[in-house]
Amino acid sequence: MTAMQKLLQLPVNAVNMVKTVQSQVQGQEEDKSPVLTPDSGQQAWYSALQPDELRHLRSGGTGGGGGGDQEERAPLEEGGGGGGGGFQTQPLRHDDLKEMLDSNKDSLKLEAMKRIVAMIARGKNASDLFPAVVKNVACKNIEVKKLVYVYLVRYAEEQQDLALLSISTFQRGLKDPNQLIRASALRVLSSIRVTIIVPIMMLAIKEAASDMSPYVRKTAAHAIPKLYSLDPEQKDQLIEVIEKLLADKTTLVAGSVVMAFEEVCPERIDLIHKNYRKLCNLLIDVEEWGQVVIINMLTRYARTQFLNPNINESLLEEGGSGDKTFYGSDEDEDEDEEEKEKKAEAAAMAKRKPYVMDPDHRLLLRNTKPLLQSRNAAVVMAVAQLYFHLAPKAEVGVIAKALVRLLRSHSEVQYVVLQNVATMSIKRRGMFEPYLKSFYIRSTDPTQIKVLKLEVLTNLANETNISTILREFQTYIKSMDKDFVAATIQAIGRCATNISEVRDTCLNGLVQLLSNRDELVVAESVVVIKKLLQMQPEKHSDIIKHMAKLTDNIQVPMARASILWLIGEYCEHVPKIAPDVLRKMAKSFTNEEDIVKLQIINLAAKLYLTNSKQTKLLTQYVLNLAKYDQNYDIRDRARFIRQLIVPTEKSGALSKYAKKLFLALKPAPVLESPFKDRDHFQLGSLSHLLNAKAGGYQELPDWPEAAPDPSVRNVEVFTLLERVTTLTSVPEWTKCSSREKRKEKKVEKPFYTDSEGESGPTESADSESDSASGSESSSGSEESGSGSESEESKEASESEEEEEEEEEEQKKKKKKDLKKPVQESESEQSSEEEERKHQRKSKPRKSESESESDEDEESESESSQSESEDSESEAEVKKKKKTAESKPPPKPLKKESKKEKKEMSLLDLDDFEPAPSPQVTPVNTFLSNSLVTDLEGLSLSDSVLSPATIAPSSALKSYELLHRITGEGLSVEYCFSRQPFSPDANMVAVQMQFTNSASSDTKNLHIEDVKLQSGMRVKEFPEIELLPAGETATAVMGIDFCDSTQAANFQLCTHTRKFFVSIQPPVGELMRPVFLTENEFKKEQGQLMGMNEITEKLTLDVKCRNEHAIVQRVTTAANLSRVPCGSDKECSPPVPPPDYPVHRFAGRTVTSGSLVLVTVATKEEGAAQLTVNCEKMVIGTMLVKDILQALTQ
Amino acid sequence: MIHSLFVINHLGDIFLEKHWKSVISRSVCDYFFEAREKAVDPENVPPVLQTPHHYLISIYRGKLFFLSVIQTEVPPLFVIEFLHRVADTFQDYFGECSESVISDNVVIVYELLEEMLDNGFPLATESNVLKEMIRPPNILRSVVNTLTGTTVSAEIQGVIEACVKLSGMPDLTMSFMNPRLLDDVSFHPCVRFRRWESERVLSFIPPDGNFTLMTYHISSQNLVAIPVYVKQSISFFEAGSCGRLDITIGPKQTMGKTVEDLKVTVHMPKAVLNANLTASQGNYTYDFTTKLLVWDIGKLNPQKLPNLRGSLSMQTGVPNPEENPSLNIDLKIQQLAISGLKVSRLDMYGETYKPFKGVKYVTKAGKFQVRT
């Protein structure tokens, strides 16, 4: 354009200004900007000026205000083609923005970006700014950067080449030390839909999947479906990443990775096996949206892996009575045949094997139930559908209340929930009956909600509540919303068909409606009455007569057609009226609607066949009229009927049967819910709502006939934990995994541990078999503690084998057989052992708990297992025994016990607990322990206790956890066993002793609902299946008190009761002994001066003035070890006279490992000085108090 | 999951769009507009619509439609719940959720949407997480009770809204005098469910700012004390095309508290052209296009009962409506929870400072409908 042309445009634009004042409001945003507002006319002027002057002018121009209008119009005109002005303004406007983006000031850049984002938000095109924006991707200002990212994600797809300029920035971002930056870089990089960078994305995702930050890993999970949609060929590689992330143990990642799984490879259900239990257990802590995805996925999973829990019930139903309560009485008649067959099959199966719920199935139900209380409607719905599809019938009821609660939410939520309730209420009516009133309709409800509520009310109607429901329906008929009234009449019809008791009442009510003022109401009633009459026409000829009269008034075609059909069908009941109706109809035939015409022809035909004398001429008249009708259907029908009913020479045999054809007995229509059988779609899904398969919908599989192998869900950690906590022999089939792996998995909840043993297909209540056997010898647990160590562990392992045999049955049988010879040879060796073995053959897990905490032993047995091979042939076992033999004895005490034994028992020893594992056992602990003993003057005799029991149990103070009376017969005591808690070195082992003094058995003792101060952790003891009356059992749990004396609160649950209990540790139990030499001690002490040192003067108790007593009292008060005294006694300040010894003790706090140093310097006449040095001042102070008390009393 | 979001005002203008995957043309909304036309009232638009290539799931909030575009199977409630969460977030941030406010804060809105979804899957929806970027408000804790009732059924539904501004990791325990009243409850995710199950106390570590701690329902078995009574007579005369209306409201069981913000709304039948009424207290308006009669009473004076009476002019030649309209009543009672639910104490653990605690009870009518 020449300058001249531009000049000429000015007046035109001026006109536009006036015209477009209205759009000013929308243009506000731009109006505010001083630089954004020129119109095309002004541009001509500006272009001749220098930039500086330009700005001046523009800001002046905005004052006028009109400028913005033109600008606003520009993009609108673009598409229309009327916009010469539009094309002109754009470059300029964007020049402004470009200029701002190119400036050095972040504020200007930010302003420009904000404006650009506002454009995007309104759906305006800002793509030509790409080069200017992409330059700022490396901008330091985080605000600008964020907006640039927004822009990039929106436009990168359109400008692929330019988008590549930004990639290096993101690649740098991926390496940033800040996790948030890494995450956001990955997020944007993966959101850029540019195919060229697929390999880069893949690499980035893979790297991020192993990032140490869970947030970055979450982002990686989000990125997976993005990449997949960009390039489906990456599927295999992506599945690998998914598999890896599925194993992640953080709640943050769980939801996102399952979402990715669902989008990329929902068919790979096998990837879930190993993660199933973890997902179940994490579920409650996952964020809401992730919960929905996980629950939906697990529903599908469960349908492929478990058996139908209702299989037995459906058998009962077959017997008769049960049927009606769950199914609408006449809704499933047609299915009956098939169903019976199925049931028969199922029956055959069930006879073979009674249904017992897989514990994993139970786990899922149990862990999802609390989520019914979620505030998020989608979560509640997800749980509800899970229960509907997976739970035993008796348990499904729990979801009703939660669903009814959702009905008080937003109307959209109501809409979806009601759809699902409608489907559920067909199958499980009883569930919603108590909430009948919640489905009453309010006049303010939107129509679609009203109709759905009506549907539910109809489904819920039965003999007992029908009168209430009908009364309610009566009010609805008066509503102003006619669609709703029509739906109500339909509903009444359905109630009448379903419940024979009220059929007449309903019919009468509907007949009354026939005199309603509203034609629509009448019409709808006619249609419904027609359907009802078909059930028992002979009874209701007066109604038919009444309806015949209506033909004079009612105009709604459908209603007229229905009446005519009725009269034709039942003309024998109204022989006088029928021909008269036909006469009237023949008269008005040409003016009728098509459906009415068709019915007139039908009526004529039927009357001709039954009463040809009176109606022959009328019929011919009607057929003639129809012959020339405009509608070909009607012409055809007339021709067809004429041939059928009027016998001629040509018409063959057919006319003989005309009467049979026309007046055959027609089955009454089944008025059924549109929601019937909709539950083959997974409830809560979009597909269910639409009653059509939506894209990407995953079918809900049918229950398998036989359960797939449940052991696929076993995870290695199980067996590991099992070993760790219960010191049982390791099942031979698992190899010990690497040390690191084990450490990670320690955190896992102990559910695994106890379910391991019973993961066979039979569980639940029937698991008594193994727990009962446990009770026999549970009392033996105490003495076993004093038995020789090797024996203990060996026996334990044997008994475990016994259990395995019971539980794992065939699977293990083979291997067990291999083992037997060994056992036998053992028993030959030692008759004493033989005896004990018998006695304890079925020794249960809990009875071993005494020794559970013995880390030394455990770790040994573990490591032996890790070394052991899968195959356990005797030869091999022997070989191994030999190698173990040749190993240096692990520790002096072991030696002692071994000496005692014969050679063969030595072999046993290393079969089950050979070489000590150096990783687990803090050697120091052990050494110091033995030293303590040494110093205490307990000489090492042949009959010495195992090192673990050195802290003499008599010295351990027991505390009461649950009194016999409050516990209703169950009393629990606990003590701090002072043994390292092997599953987690940072935990304090708490040994609990359960005594059941009640007259009945206590079952399923376990811990729930642990309440802890932040940072604290608890490792629960494995559930005690059965504690028979009068028996005692022990278990060990670990608590990480976080170096504080805060109580750990939790519930102790039995199968019937829950008790609130808390464990508060004395400060002395928060540490473990360490071994230091005197010099080391002094050195450390030197570094813990000042605030970290607390000194108290005291007078020792009279009984406590000898060395032994002091040491004993101090070590009783606190779990410390004594520092051996060197020859010199001039050590700690103040230097004591040589006669008065100084006692030093050392330990570390369990959680943080801070050193605790205690010095007791004795002086004359029982005077002494106590010094505690500890980094943790609180601990130090408390410890001083405790030791003071111990020494002075 | 969620592909795109369009925010549409009551005039049918799309004033905000956001895409989380590739861009979908706004013409997809035409299907929605079609349904909107058909539905007459905006509330009647089906929340889920199917188009040849997409599914549209929408919510109606504050005269705005939030319309999301879906391409594959997703639980509809998931989307609906999320859209409401978006609207809640706007309300939380800007005090209201309206077109003007969204347009004024379009950049923040856009950033929020960007944070809330990643690739269509919710990322951060918790207000306190989002507020790491923007402002939080004051300190007060309130118990709000809403009462819903008709002459046919009555129930109480309540919420406990919390406003927490405590530093550190306070572990709060809230207990009630009469927790047995509660029939059904749902919780914010921070509440420890097990503890509630066994002890009936709410134990939680709260997020910062305003949030709904719990909603509850009081079973209909417990008698609901309806705080007001209504005497009304609405009649339409066959001859003369007019009708009469007479409504009086009086207090019933208000436990000595004043009933405030009393408002009566009547959806008149189509035939009612105009209303010529006198109100002894408050103002009334009649909108003849929407047929909505609103009588704003304000405080209920027990000495002089508010009354609204007068004549209704009707369209001639149209048969009289056979059903009388039902009355919707809104009210509010301060310092009273009609359910009788009382907070007994609130304890804080885990932090050493002393927090300010306060509780405010309010009763509000929910869907109080009088059938006439």
What does this structure look like?
With 1193 residues, chain A is α+β, with helices and mostly antiparallel strands. Chain A contains 55 helices and 15 strands. In chain A, the strands form three sheets. In chain A, strands 10, 11, 12, 13, 14 and 15 form a six-stranded antiparallel β-sheet that branches. The longest helix of chain A has 41 residues, at 789-829. Chain A is elongated and about 140 Å long. Chain A starts with a helix and ends with a helix. The model of chain A is unreliable at 1-92, 317-336, 718-831, 840-954 and 1127-1137 (pLDDT under 50). By secondary structure, chain B is of the alpha+beta class. Chain B folds into three domains: 2-139, Beta-Lactamase, CATH 3.30.450.60; 156-223 and 338-370, Immunoglobulin-like (Sandwich); 228-334, Mu homology domain, subdomain B (Immunoglobulin-like, Sandwich). Chain B is 16% helix and 44% strand. Chain B is built from six helices and 23 strands. Chain B has helices spanning 29-39, 76-94, 99-104, 106-116, 127-130, 193-199; strands at 2-8, 14-19, 48-50, 55-61, 64-70, 117-118, 121-122, 140-150, 154-164, 171-176, 182-187, 201-204, 209-218, 228-236, 242-251, 259-267, 272-279, 283-287, 292-298, 307-314, 327-334, 343-349, 360-370. A nine-stranded mixed β-sheet of chain B has the order 11-13-9-8-23-21-16-19-18, with no helix packed on it. Chain B has a five-stranded antiparallel β-sheet with strand order 2-1-5-4-3. In chain B, a hairpin with a 4-residue loop joins β3 (48-50) and β4. The model of chain B is unreliable at 136-151 (pLDDT under 50). The interface between A and B is large, with 89 and 92 residues.
